[in-house]
Amino acid sequence: METQLPDDFSCPISLEIMSDPVILPSGHTFDRVSIQWWLDSGHRTCPITKLPLPEHPCLIPNHALRSLISNYTLVSPSKLQPCPQPQILISSLTSQSSHVGTKLNSLTHLVRFTKHDSGFRRKLTELGAAPGVLKCVGSDDPSLQEKALSLLLNLSLDDDNKVGLVAEGAINRVIKVLRFGSPDCRAIAATIITSLAVVEVNKATIGAYPDAIQALVWLLISGKGREKKEAATALYAICSFADNRRRAIDCGAVPILISLLDSGLERAIEVLGLLVKCKEGREEMMKVNGCVKVLVSVLRNGSSRGVQYGLFTLNCLCTCCERLCFEAINEGVVEICMGLMEEENEKIRRYTSSLVQTLRENHAFG
């Protein structure tokens, strides 16, 4: 038989199981996020007794009740995921009187429930959560900004939300974070760009923002490991749209990507594999001393995916430039290609064959 939840476990305001029960001076217990929303809305009476409260009522943690709830969920794990009232949580994000702690608590709840629940994500967007989330993304408080970015990323996981979030102004907010946020915030912001760019129409929209691609290229220069990787991934996502390739090249992405590739960031070869498709990209790569050496190193030491992009990029360059063919030969590319001909990966074998044919046509070897 299904076990009934004790009524005392539910918050009198939200009617949901309490995750952080606190006691008002009136002696009644509420979930912290719900009673804080009540107070931030200007109420100075107890929701149950209607008796007046102090101007700044003290909220005392109800450790005993919290322990009971925790113990009960251990015995009855199916009851572990109480879902707070989303309207209350959203209201706390948009209310001017909400404290940072209240907003942070609300965002924590929302992040937890949107991570794996697409239905909850849709419900939030239908309730108009985006403006409140984006307002918190623009906060000067690093903790609040990071949690809001995590929620924005969760909301962007659903394709139905992607265009709407861009229309709400998400890109402007994210670009500012790429420039001025903490390292963790910048990494999440770049990941959001990648997520939003899954929808084809967003690729063009993102690239059209004057500072979007420039901010990602800047992050390739100034960021740490995770930031660089996420920035490169975002560039790869938006540069499948041809106009964005030229924008990335104009921002100086090519020499930076080659340098990062030489330093071990293999994700850079994927972006170069897109930029090499346009004339401007090939011309920029030809200007970089040691470009061929770096690409041949990818063929020698890279992952299967890296080798595919390395072969494609090198072939595009060698097709246009006889000098690069001889550079590739001098770097030992023929011996590497002979070994790659035996690869199980059909695409690697095909790209290898194309590169060998290009070298022959340019008379680089017999």
UniProtKB/TrEMBL annotation:
InterPro entries: ARM-like, ARM-type_fold, ARM_PUB, Armadillo, RING-Ubox_PUB, Ubox_domain, Znf_RING/FYVE/PHD
Entry keyword Chloroplast: no
Catalysed reactions, as listed in the record: S-ubiquitinyl-[E2 ubiquitin-conjugating enzyme]-L-cysteine + [acceptor protein]-L-lysine = [E2 ubiquitin-conjugating enzyme]-L-cysteine + N(6)-ubiquitinyl-[acceptor protein]-L-lysine
The keyword Disulfide bond belongs to this UniProt entry's keyword annotation: no
Keywords for this protein: Repeat, Transferase, Ubl conjugation pathway
Residues annotated as domain U-box: 4-79
Record-linked Gene3D superfamilies: Leucine-rich Repeat Variant, Zinc/RING finger domain, C3HC4 (zinc finger)
Gene Ontology BP terms: protein ubiquitination
Its EC number(s): 2.3.2.27
Alphabetical list of Pfam families matching this protein: ARM_PUB (PF25598), U-box (PF04564)
Pathway field: Protein modification; protein ubiquitination
Record-level GO cellular component terms: cytoplasm; nucleus
Highest rank taxon of the organism: Eukaryota
GO MF term (any one): ubiquitin protein ligase activity
UniProt-recorded name of the protein: RING-type E3 ubiquitin transferase
Gene source species: Gossypium hirsutum (Upland cotton)
Gene that produces this protein: LOC107940938
